[in-house]
Every structure is written in C-alpha cells, then in structure tokens.
Write a structure and sequence with these properties.
This protein has helices spanning 4-13, 20-57, 78-85, 120-126, 153-159, 172-180, 211-217, 237-248, 257-260, 262-300, 302-310, 315-351, 371-388, 390-397, 401-407, and strands spanning 64-68, 90-104, 110-118, 133-136, 142-143, 146-152, 166-171, 188-196, 206-210, 226-231, 252-256. It is α+β, with helices and mostly antiparallel strands. It folds into two domains: 4-57 and 264-407, no CATH class; 64-258, no CATH class. Strand 5 and strand 6 (146-152) form a beta hairpin. Helix 2 (20-57) runs antiparallel to helix 13. The longest helix is centred in the last third of the chain and has 39 residues, at 262-300. It is elongated.
Length: 408
C-alpha cells in the first residue's frame, strides 16, 4: 500500500524544526490565500458595478427591441404583434416612433432634440418614468386641440420652459420639403405638460409625445420605428431573441438589452477579466515559491526518495508524493483565500464598509458574488499549484537509489 499522501504531508508540515523549506511553504500558502481572496473581492466588485449599470440602463432600455433591418420604419403589422403576445415570457409590448426634430420655444430659443412617440399606457408598463416626473404630469394626450409634450429637466432649464407653455417641433422631413418645394415649413405645436429627471448613463435626454402625433410629425403614416418588449425575466433575452428572429425572419433586426449598450458592457467585461489576469500574477509568484520549496525538498530528501524506491515504491508513486504536496498547498491556500474573500464581500454587501463619494449614484462599493467566478478562481489557482509541482516531481522520480544512498 502506498502512503503517498501521508509522506507528502510529513515533508510539508514536519513539526521537528522550522527550516527554509517550511518558511517557503508558509509564504506559498500565504501568497495563494491573498491572491485568491483578492480575486474574489475584485471580481465581485466588478460584478456589483455591472449590475448597478445594468439596472440604470434597464430603467429606460427594453429587454428586447425590434426594428426594421431594411428601412427606417416598418408597417405596423397587427398579426405579428398578436404573435408576440402569445409568447409566455413577453410581458409588455410598446411600439414607438423616434426621430430628430428642431424644438422652438421663442424666436431666439431652439434646439435639436430626439423626439419619441409612445403609447402612454404601454410605455408606463415598460419604464417606470412616472416616478421621475419632477413637474406636471406625464400626459401626451390631445387637450383643447393641442397634443402634450414631456421634456427633460435639463432641456426645460436650457430653454426656460414652464408647464403649460407651447412649443413647436419641426422634423427633418419638414425642413427638406420646405427647401425643395419652396414652401413654409409646417410646424407642429405642442403643450408642455411635464418635466422628468431620469438618470441616464449613455445617450441624450428625449422629448416624449403621443405615438400618433409623432407619426404625423415624422410623416411615417401608421409605420413604426420599432417595438420595445419587456420580459418577465431579462436573463431570457438571448433565448427570446432567437425565437423572434426565427419567427419574424431577416427583415427585422432583434436587439437584446446587451446589444443596445454592447460597447459599454463589453468594456466592463474586458476590465473585469483584465483585472483577473493581472491579479493572477500574485498567485503566479506564490506558485514560483511552491516550485522553489519543492525543489529544495527533492534535494533535501534525496536519500529518503532513494530508500523509498528501494523499498518498492514506483517512479509513479514518487511523483504522486510531490504532486500531492503542490495539491495540499493549493487546497489550503484556496480554502483560506476563498473563505476570506467571501467573508469580505459579505461584510461589504451587508454593512457597506467601504464608502464611495457622495456624488456617485450609490453610497458604497457594490459587490455581487457569482458561483462561476469563484469556481474559475479556485480551479485556476489549484491548477497552477499542481502544475508547479510537476517539475520537482519529475526530478524526484529520476533519483537513482544506489547513488542517493551512496552519496548521503
């Protein structure tokens, strides 16, 4: 019977005296522990920031957006809208029309804005914008022959608007007709009904009007710019995207919440895994210590290895002894590092120990532990520790018993 595990533990953790080997072993375990704990904490912080940013973006981005792949607008097809409603995961369907227009307040006050025409009831189910209304109400209906308009607080401040004031919108199509047909541009007048202040990470603030009013403004007839969809679970977006693409065909462009902000999300993932690779350097340094300590054990225990081979231990068994030493160092370091890392993230998530600047959108560093990340960290660290023992184990198995005993 081969007591390879027992011998490996004796070589690593002998209590007879403190030697350079035991010191290097302690340093190796400490390095793996610190590296593993740091990786768990740092990746959890990146996950936390990702969830915060995702939450803000999903406060005004849909889970799925359907647009035409061939033109700026597409026909409002009630048949496939009904088909969308038949998908169990689809909770809200909100059609919209969007475009650029010149908003004129007075002769001297005008600004190019992005106008979005929405169905009020559907839009309220898609985005909880009513909580962001700072003045007036979100009312884009026609009252006293005048459709309503909702503007962002910043735009209201720039133009000096007040609730109840009238503004005029002129679309690019209207400007084009005025230039080509030498006619007076047709202005569409709206009444300012409310202002909102919605936190936005990317893109500029939008002006909201009624869907039918926007179709008249941009001369799209009954066509739509797109359809926004809210799902019961945003994590199902990729699956539903594939289902919709198969049903609707290549004439339509289907985008998930990730696709809508892909550059931002990609950068965040790149930063996360870039930090992972950089922090792995700490573990690599610890792994070099493992390599050094195991090589010293091979040299110091050369006579013991020769005796073991003489007693009938195979070359394979000798390799196992030294590989298990690397495994034990990795297991101890990963267990301690994993426990410390998870404890620190729990403390931060529960008590918010490390605070952020008061100017930021949250008060303390967000953390979110993901099992997959922890598994990758622990498995990666363990593999490096075992790999560090490969060369010393190979050298130990090449010891010749006669030479080892003679020279000792």
């Amino acid at each position: 019977m081969e007591y390879t595990g027992f011998i490996a533990r004796r070589y690593l953790f002998s209590k007879k005296h403190i030697s350079l080997i035991s010191t290097l072993t302690f340093i190796s375990i400490t390095g793996v522990t610190i590296g593993t704990a740091l990786l768990i904490v740092v990746l959890s912080v990146f996950n936390g920031f990702f969830d915060v940013i995702k939450g803000f973006l999903l406060s005004y981005d849909p889970d799925i957006r359907i647009e035409s792949a061939e033109a700026r607008t597409f026909d409002q097809n009630n048949d496939w809208l009904e088909e969308l409603n038949s998908i169990p995961e689809v909770r809200v369907i909100s059609p919209y029309v969007v475009g650029k227009a010149l908003l004129t307040h007075t002769d001297d006050e005008s600004k190019v804005v992005e106008v979005k025409g929405v169905n009020r009831e559907k839009f309220f189910q898609l985005i909880d914008i009513e909580q962001s209304i700072t003045n007036g109400i979100f009312d884009v209906s026609v009252r006293n022959g005048r459709p309503g308009l909702i503007v962002h607080d910043q735009l209201r401040s720039d133009l000096g608007l007040t609730i109840g004031e009238q503004v005029a919108l002129l679309s690019a199509a209207g400007m084009k007709n005025a230039l080509t047909q030498v006619t007076t541009p047709r202005l569409y007048r709206f009444e300012t009904r409310g202002t909102y202040d919605l936190q936005q990470i990317s893109g500029g603030p939008q002006v909201y009007v009624d869907l039918v009013a926007a179709q008249r403004l941009f001369r799209t007839r009954s066509n739509l710019s797109g359809v926004d969809i809210k799902l019961s679970d945003s994590e199902q977006a990729e699956h539903i995207k594939a289902v919709l693409q198969e049903r609707l065909g290549p004439s339509y462009k289907i985008s998930t919440w990730y696709d809508l902000q892909k550059p931002l999300y990609d950068v965040m993932y790149l930063e996360k895994w870039g930090a992972y690779l950089i922090l792995m350097i700490i573990i690599i340094v610890a792994v070099l210590n493992i390599l050094a300590s195991l090589m010293m054990i091979v040299i110091q225990k050369r006579r013991d290895v020769g005796i073991l081979i003489s007693m009938g231990y195979t070359r394979s068994a000798i390799k196992k002894i030294f590989r298990k030493q690397g495994l034990y160092i990795g297991l101890i370091g990963c267990a301690l590092g994993g426990g410390i890392g998870l404890l620190l993230t729990w403390l931060q998530k529960t008590y918010g120990i490390i605070k952020l600047s008061s100017a930021f959108i949250i008060s303390s560093y967000p953390v979110e532990v993901r099992i997959l990340d922890v598994s990758i960290i622990l498995v990666g660290s363990l593999i490096l520790c075992v790999a560090a023992s490969w060369y010393p184990a190979s050298r130990a198995s090449q010891v010749q018993p006669a030479d080892a005993i003679r020279f000792e």
